[in-house]
User: Fold this.
Amino acid sequence: MLRYLTAGESHGPQLTAIIEGLPANLPLSIEKINHQLWRRQQGFGRGGRMRIETDQVKIGSGIRFGETSGMPVTLVVENRDWKNWEQRMAIEGNPPDDLEIVTKPRPGHADLAGALKYNQTDIRNVLERASARNTATLVAVGAVARQLLEQFQIHVYSHIVELGPIQVGPVEGTIEEIAARAEQSQVRVANPEKEQEIIKLIKNVRKEGNSLGGIFEVVVTGVPFGLGSYAMPDRKLDSRLAGALMGIQAIKGVEIGMGFDAARNFGSDVHDEIFYSPEKGYWRGTNGAGGIEGGVSNGQPIVVRAAMKPIPTLYKPLRSVDMRTKEPFEASIERSDVCAAPAAAVVGEAIVAWVIAAAFMEKFGGDSLQETRANYNNFVSMVKDR
Ligand SMILES: Cc1cc2nc3c(=O)[nH]c(=O)nc-3n(C[C@H](O)[C@H](O)[C@H](O)COP(=O)(O)O)c2cc1C
Ligand SMILES: C=C(O[C@@H]1CC(C(=O)O)=C[C@@H](OP(=O)(O)O)[C@H]1O)C(=O)O
Assistant:
């Protein structure tokens, strides 16, 4: 079983992840993990914190001479901002005399619900972990999962399909071409005509002190038949993908394939007819199902979309109530992202890669990459002529 845990606060010394259940002898490149961390920090609309951080992973265990040993892998990403917070976020000792505690909950954040749930008078103890800073660890974990998937020619891509009120519209080309254009874009859109329009919108929204969300699409190619199961709801690949994507900060909706649009169309326009040819095996002319039927991967690309709400911290303050005085106040802030949907798309890719890798290991198992590959090859040849 492939599993992971993460720990770490936004302004603490470091973020940590432990992955357990990777097969032995899997080549793992730190450079590839760092590349994914870099991608997550990009995107027009991010705030001052991104100018402080340059995320790099440190491996603490489970890898020797560039390959996994089959033992738990520890990943650490240090917070550069920690040096500015050492007093206020000290692990030991007493709080400094001049410590300003946070008593003003921000609408759209975990602040109020978290302070009441964990009985905290200083909301900092809530926001530090609720912050999307820990999406850096998710991306590091996903970057490891991707390297396992790449061994089996499974690839994960993303692009932005809507940003605030702007629809990117139909995009031309293969999945790989669309992804390559998104990769070049400052806002991860595959349609270059829309890029400038979106950047202008983000600039205006920033000027107005407001914020934006967006919708991104993640596509996975090369997924074999048979990941996930209809045996139980929690084993369905679609339920696992939706749950994992909803676990990313600010994600409020997930669609698989046609998603909500399936409900607006006739059955004949939604379901993907089945064809067979000796060269291609079973094939489909459409992919309304987004590569999953009955909670099981059906050999088509997996297509999922996730909706991110606008960033909740606004320069134009929203009304709230001080938890100490119960007096109303209007929040003032020092820095925030205005739009982080392009970054969220990279986090989405990571978490999707993780779910696919976990389902892959569940199906094929194996304690070494060689054993996993033998099991995979065996299944592929078993279903080839069926
Ligand atoms: C990549 C990324 C960056 C984010 N940056 C900010 C930010 O700078 N300011 C902010 O208020 N919220 C930011 N958020 C959103 C909040 O973390 C999130 O809305 C909050 O933790 C509440 O969680 P919920 O929206 O899932 O309910 C970001 C989210 C993501 C995915
Ligand atoms: C640090 C990251 O994102 C942060 C997520 C975040 C939030 O409230 O979720 C608030 C901001 O941090 P700060 O409060 O330090 O300015 C973002 O920069 C990151 O993505 O690495």
About this structure: Residues 231 and 295 are 9 Å apart (CA to CA). The mean pLDDT is 96. The first strand starts at residue 3 and ends at 7.
